[in-house]
């Protein structure tokens, strides 16, 4: 879907010392007559024949009134239908390197009424711009800017760090948390979300696919009508390389805007001029900057017209969705932990079973069995502050409670944590934790602590225990113990299944709220992205520590995705079982009614 172009035609604005270009054209009818006079048949030209079709194209409503104009925007004036409306709030999001901050600066200059020759390059917080490699997010953290048009319309713009940062998925998770925090503290309603993508890309790159999928997963369906795709570095649909099939299904109906930012082009032009570029090249570059400004202002006309028609949406759904994603992440970690603990219990019970079967059990075998099944459970308990926790399998260490470092999901930042070897020693690079002795890379900040709980995964069947105690001889005792232990093994599996179903329920709730309709989609894209970074690091001179960290990131994401898929599979199996049960009961009722004439009976609760 494309935003409607305004019907009125206006002279393209140019600077005083530049003459507008004029194209000499021959009317279609005259050209046809000329060809006919020469005895040349009039060929069927798609370019000529589609004129009438385009006039009827419903996507371009020629009767739609244009609220804003280029002339007004050049003066910094934003028109609104509702004269009582005085404020808009916009979110700028997208992949790293798509020009979010540059677009923000351009919008600021438009609202200030700055002409091309008076563009201000310092309209945004330069301290929040890294100025490093384009592969890393230039913007350090989410920041809300407040601008005012020359007719006192307030425009709030939340600038955000780019996704698909080469520093890893943890960095993106940190960026998402920062965005949620800024929204929670500063933004109550949002009018529009602009998702930026590089329109010059010939195909959907892994990082772009990851960014678009992730963005469609973090925004709720309630914002569907308030989202627009902005293709940067191209001024119109003809110059875009980004194909329609590259857009995720959840964003296919979003209006599309195109902008080749004149602020960025002006910056490049001034660099060319400072470097003594040839005059002819400078003239061509200057003309391109001028024409790009005209096209960009036309895009702003379309944008502000669209913006004025939107109903502002509360940000509560964004925050609810983010909190739900955090709950799912924590539930996945707990499930992985409890699966490991359940596996340990299963192995211990199987070992006791083997002892009985091979006649190696001693008189205390049942006591050992009771002890093994009553082991306490470790899980994350939420806290209001962040702590350094170990994530190594079967390690439940709270290595530094109330860590004083800034919250980070990047293990590299945790080398400066108090718990790490080398803390306080100048220039020493910590490699492992002095509390649990596991590598730094296996640690992370959590707003939770590992805590041991009294709840047991399974309980000893008192009837089985009495049967074992009343047995007269060793063989009878062994049989009673084996029966109890085999039942306990089945109990372990059921406990894990219950945890899995709970996790699947959370993921399903998330999917119903989010645009993408899936929690696992961005995990899958994240794995693909990290595998690409890993392959690239293996081909380059990347140090071994970074390669190892990338490998661990990939494995961790795969473990999480595997758990989520198993959870969904178990839940689907339970649904199918219930459907089969209900179907069977329905057939039985029909048979009873047919043979006896009796009314139907309700299915027993056991079918659930």
State the main characteristics.
608 residues; alpha/beta; Rossmann fold; six-stranded mixed β-sheet; 15 helices
Account of the 3D structure:
The longest helix is centred in the last third of the chain and has 53 residues. This protein has a domain of 245 residues: Rossmann fold. It is built from 15 helices and eleven strands. α10 runs antiparallel to α11 and α10 packs across α15. The strands form three sheets. The protein has a six-stranded mixed beta sheet. Strands 10-9-11 form a three-stranded antiparallel beta sheet. The radius of gyration is 32 Å and the shape is globular. A hairpin with a 7-residue loop joins β9 and β10. By secondary structure, the chain is α/β, with parallel strands linked by helices. 47% of the residues lie in helices and 11% in strands. It holds the Pfam family AIG1. This is AIG1-type G domain-containing protein.
Order of helices and strands: HHHHEHEEHEEHEEHHEHHEEEHHHH
CATH topology of the domain at 69-313: Rossmann fold
- End-to-end Cα distance, whole Å, is 46 Å
Regions with pLDDT < 50 over 5+ consecutive residues?
4-28, 54-63, 131-135
Largest sheet: 6 strands, mixed
Question: Radius of gyration over alpha carbons?
Answer: 32 Å
Return the average pLDDT rounded to an integer. 78
How large a portion of the residues is in β-strands, by DSSP E? 5-15%
């Amino acid at each position: 879907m494309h935003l409607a172009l305004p019907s009125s035609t206006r002279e393209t604005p140019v600077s005083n010392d530049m003459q507008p270009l004029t194209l000499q054209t021959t009317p279609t009818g005259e050209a046809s007559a000329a060809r006919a006079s020469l005895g040349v048949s009039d060929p069927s030209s798609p370019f000529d024949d589609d004129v009438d079709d385009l006039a009827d194209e419903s996507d371009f409503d020629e009767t739609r009134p244009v609220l804003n104009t280029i002339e007004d925007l050049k003066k910094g004036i934003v028109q609104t239908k509702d004269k009582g409306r005085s404020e808009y709030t916009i979110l700028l999001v997208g992949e790293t390197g798509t020009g979010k901050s540059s677009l923000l600066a351009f919008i600021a200059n438009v609202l200030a009424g700055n002409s091309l020759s008076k563009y201000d390059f310092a309209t945004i917080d330069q301290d929040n711009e890294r100025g490093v490699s384009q592969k890393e997010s230039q913007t350090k953290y989410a920041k809300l800017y407040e601008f005012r048009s020359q007719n006192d319309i307030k425009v709030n713009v939340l600038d955000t760090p780019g996704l698909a940062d080469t520093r890893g998925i943890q960095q993106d998770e940190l960026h998402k948390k920062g965005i949620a925090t800024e929204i929670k503290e500063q933004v109550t309603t949002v009018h529009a979300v602009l998702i930026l993508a590089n329109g010059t890309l010939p195909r959907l790159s892994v990082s772009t696919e990851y960014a678009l999928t992730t963005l469609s997963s973090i925004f709720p369906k309630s914002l569907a009508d308030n989202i627009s795709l902005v293709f940067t570095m191209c001024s119109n649909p003809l110059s875009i390389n980004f194909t329609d099939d590259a857009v995720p299904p959840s964003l296919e109906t979003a209006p599309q805007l195109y902008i080749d930012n004149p602020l960025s082009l002006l910056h490049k032009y001034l660099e060319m001029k400072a470097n003594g570029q040839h005059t002819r090249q400078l003239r061509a570059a200057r003309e391109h900057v001028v024409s790009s400004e005209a096209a960009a202002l036309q895009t702003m006309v379309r944008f502000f017209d669209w913006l004025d028609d939107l109903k502002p949406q509360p940000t509560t759904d964004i925050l609810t969705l983010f909190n739900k994603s955090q709950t799912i992440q924590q539930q996945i970690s707990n499930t992985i932990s409890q699966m490991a603990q359940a596996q340990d219990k299963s192995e211990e019970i199987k070992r006791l079973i083997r002892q009985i079967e091979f006649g190696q059990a001693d008189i205390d075998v049942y006591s050992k069995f009771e002890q093994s099944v009553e082991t306490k459970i470790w899980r994350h308990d939420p806290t209001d502050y962040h702590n350094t926790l170990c994530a190594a399998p079967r390690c439940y260490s709270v290595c530094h409670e109330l860590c004083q470092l800034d919250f980070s999901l990047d293990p590299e930042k945790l080398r400066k944590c108090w718990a790490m070897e080398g803390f306080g020693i100048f220039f020493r690079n910590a490699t492992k934790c002095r509390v649990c002795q596991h590598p730094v890379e296996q640690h992370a900040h959590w707003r939770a602590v590992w805590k041991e709980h009294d709840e047991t995964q399974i309980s000893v069947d008192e009837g089985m225990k009495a049967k074992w105690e009343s047995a007269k001889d060793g063989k009878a005792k062994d049989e009673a113990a084996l029966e109890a232990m085999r039942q306990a093994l089945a109990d372990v599996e059921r406990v894990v299944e219950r945890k899995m179903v709970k996790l699947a329920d959370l993921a399903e709730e998330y999917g119903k709220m989010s645009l993408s309709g899936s929690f696992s989609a961005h995990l899958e894209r994240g794995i693909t992205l990290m595998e690409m970074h890993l392959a690239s690091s293996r081909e380059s001179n990347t140090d071994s520590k970074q390669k190892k960290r990338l490998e661990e990131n990939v494995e961790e994401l795969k473990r999480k995705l595997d758990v989520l898929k198993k959870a969904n599979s178990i839940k689907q199996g339970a649904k199918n079982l219930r459907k089969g049960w209900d179907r069977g009961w329905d057939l039985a009722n029909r048979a009873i009614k047919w043979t006896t004439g009796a009314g139907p009976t309700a299915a027993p609760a056991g079918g659930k």
